[in-house]
What we know:
The protein has 451 residues and is mainly α. 71% of the residues lie in helices and 1% in strands.
Amino acid sequence: MRAEHTQSIIHQNKMLKSPMKSLLSLMLILLMGSLSWAQNDYNWNESKNKHGDLARWSYAGQLIQAKRFAEAKTEIDYFLAELPNLDEDLYKQAITVYEGLERDEKDPTKKTAFQDTVLNLYDKRLSLYNNEAYVLDRKGRVAFPYLTQRSNYDAEALFQLYKRIIELNGNNTYTYNIYYYYWLLANVQKAQGKATDEDLDASYDLVTDILNAQQQQYSGKASKLKQIDYTRQQVNYYYKEKRSPMDCATLGKRYGEEVNDLATAKKIQSAMKSKCEDDALYLQALETIFNQEPNTAICQELGVYYQKKGMYSKAIAVFNKGAELSSSSQEKAGFNLSIAQLYQQKGDKNQARVYARQCISQGYYTKEAYKLIGDLYLFSYNDCNGKDIVKTRSIYIAAYNMYEKAGNEEGMRKAEEQFPSAEEIFLQNKKVGDEVNTGCWINETVKLRKR
């Protein structure tokens, strides 16, 4: 509605003493309000009482703005019956009212009746005002959730609706309508023998391209990206579940020649994940995505792949990129912990500690990071073995302190078993509680404890 709020209508009504004056005043206020929004191209020609209808239309708008849909229904129904050619805006507002009534209704019979009215209003709007792409896209938002709850819905007609929506709207299709389309194709059309594996393949490629385009278009818009991600997950699930299994060789033949194309690489990634990860094509696809469109998700997937294959330096580089791209401290800490673990696997204890400490400073995965540092210290005896046995064994006290911060009792027990003995402390002319620096690469100052 284009009406601006009229101020203090109720107050003004109460100030009038005569019921007739109250009615006339209200009509006048509403009429004045209507003048600010009523469009010149509204078709009031069929109105028998234009001034009264203008006021009533303005009043309907105020009710809709206030989401008083039950009251607005009376006004909207009047215009649908008496002035059905008023303007497309009538059908927009009528749909808003009936969708609101449907959401609020608890009685199943009434709820179904409201749903039918909404769908009929979309059809009427389309017949009067065309704009097929937009109107069908809007209708698609509700048609699937309304109709698929019914045991006797016309699945073929519903599928054709979503097929038409995608044909008309392409990359601008409402994201959830893409999911509805593929759900009907995979779960109904395929089950009824109306769709083949090749149809699932072709439609999968089509909708994946649309989702990829939308991901680019809405980059930075978290709520929209969440919709896209959910839809992609659902499409991937039904594609894998309902299509006859393809072996890795078949997937390679289908996609391999275009692995350097970003859109194709994303399809390969989705199709091969969890079942063809040892195939060289899967790695090529991950690398293509990482090189052309790096994001934290692909950094995680590619980094883990390299790590499993023992390609630690490459994994570290990818995880570092993931940390750089991370938008949250938690995500960044996760990448830093992974890097610390990789340096630990490489035997670079100092660098492992550097990244574990970064993880701790970010406030996430701190127990894991402290345990990792404790492990580094616990297994550094050969690195730090010297003539001073107390100084050497003090590294176990440093390890114990890290395990304690991690809440790791097993690590604490193992470290405590290697503390210097009372005799060793005495022979070094020291006593329990003295401060000792571990020296070596650890370089921690600890208070002496005995085993």
